[in-house]
Amino acid sequence: MQQTKLLLNSIKQVLKIRGITYRDLAERMQISEASVKRLFSKHTVSLARLEEICNIVDLDFYELATLAKRNSEKPSRALSFEQECILAQDHKLMVFLYFIIHGWPLPYIIEEYDISASEATRMLVQLDRLGIIELHPENKFRLLISKNVLWHKKGPIWNTYLEKVTEDFMEHDFRHANERLLFTTGQFTRKSLDIIEKKLDDFIKTFNRLAEEDAGLPLKDRRSTGLFIAFRPWVFSLISGLRRIKRRDP
Predict the structure, then answer these.
(1) Domain 2-72, CATH 1.10.260.40 — does that match?
(2) Could you give the CA distance from residue 77 to residue 69 in angstroms, rounded to a whole number?
(3) Helices and strands per DSSP (H, E), number in the chain
(4) C-alpha 146 chain-centroid distance
(5) Where are the domains of the chain?
(6) Is the pTM of this model over 0.70?
(7) Are strands 140-143 and 133-136 parallel, antiparallel or unpaired?
(8) Any idea what the Cα angle at residue 109 is, between residues 108 and 111, rounded to 5°?
(9) For the segment 50-87, what is each residue's pLDDT rounded down to a tens digit?
(10) pLDDT for residue 125
(11) pLDDT value at position 97?
């Protein structure tokens, strides 16, 4: 029952990301909407019915099993200082880790990027030795860290990549769909600043949670997305530069 629940919950993720409602699914399956809701709530489904749903949402069994497996695992360990140092010094290993923690299949990585099959195996072994993954036969592995642990503030990775990432990210006009660049200022009390900071923390948690939930979905349904937030008490230098310097009495 637990395995069936995981599979059905994973299908619900795919339905959400593709905008398919229970009513849409019911029409395609030629059953009532109530029957579809009961199927997902009772966690009872035959193999034939499961295959039918997968065909409707364009999801094969391997993709579904991968998504369900990722949903069942709760990695939480953060990178150690030593692990960060090694990754900061090996740019290709760092990029490879980015790929696999976001659920990119090895065949796709090898086909699309300058990483050979033997090199991918070598890097998997290296990540296993570092305690970042748990490597199994046939290059199967279990991730031992959460995917949003690569940017510890002031850590080795942060110090190595921050300037380049900031420059690369901001060199853009932000005029397309799902892009946003906003800038505004205000004057606030300490209490209001604390409220804004709390809301930003909540938003980051939502961002990371959704990234975790979507990680096992097929690549065709996902887009690599960056989020850049800066928040601090601040006065523009053109303004502060006009401030009169008050003379102190001797």
Answers:
(1) yes
(2) 18
(3) 12, 2
(4) 9
(5) 2-72
(6) no
(7) antiparallel
(8) 65
(9) 888 888 888 887 778 777 776 666 555 678 888 889 99
(10) 96
(11) 92
